[in-house]
Specification:
The chain is built from one helix and nine strands; from the N terminus they run αβββββββββ. The radius of gyration is 26 Å and the shape is rod-shaped.
Length: about 190
């Protein structure tokens, strides 16, 4: 009579488990850093695209209504903030401008500060953009020049910049995504 052969139990040793945990920890560390960069880029791209969309909407409304339409930073969603230096991360509005230069109520579009959270948006002395009935643009608070810009920055990284440009003809575009490839400001506000 033969005795049954004892099978060897298979399992994971403590050393194997520790090595696996160390590899997972290293991969997570690398992944979280890349994920943070991805989130920061997405916030800035979202802010730039939202701003461009609203500037284009204002231009089309000015032509359609045959009236001046203004896009300006606003803290309360009803009036323009006009204290330089002007920052747009508190939100902005799109509104028709009456003959006296005041805003007509109700506001056409309003973007609250939540949409701009996590970015710094500065335009220096430009208090907003006014689109004329022919579709051309001029900055409110600054008269000279043929092109103006609003900088969108990552507060945690001065190298990461988006710059939304508006030219005198009313066209809007992102002027720089990568400071090494385009003419871009060296730092953010």
């Amino acid at each position: 009579m033969t005795l049954p052969r004892r099978s060897r139990l298979r399992g994971v040793t403590l050393i194997e488990l520790l090595v696996t945990l160390a590899v997972v920890a290293i991969l997570l560390t690398l992944g979280v850093g890349a994920f943070r960069t991805l989130i920061a880029n997405a916030k800035m791209t979202n802010a730039a695209n939202s701003l461009i969309g609203h500037l284009q909407f204002a231009r089309s409304e000015a032509v359609k209504r045959n009236r001046r339409v203004e896009v300006c930073p606003s803290e309360d969603g009803r009036t323009c903030s006009d204290t330089p230096p002007v920052f747009w991360q508190g939100g902005y509005i799109v509104a028709v401008v009456n003959e006296e230069g005041g805003l007509v109520s109700p506001v056409l579009r309003r973007v609250d500060g939540e949409a701009m959270r996590g970015v710094t948006v500065g335009s220096g002395s430009i208090e907003g953009f006014i689109y004329l009935p022919d579709g051309t643009a001029r900055p409110d608070g600054m008269v000279s020049g043929t092109q103006w810009a609003i900088k969108i920055c990552d507060p945690g990284d001065d190298e990461r910049i988006r710059q939304v440009a508006v030219n005198a003809m009313g066209r809007t575009y992102v002027q720089c995504n990568d400071p090494s490839l385009y003419t871009c400001p060296a730092s953010c506000p």
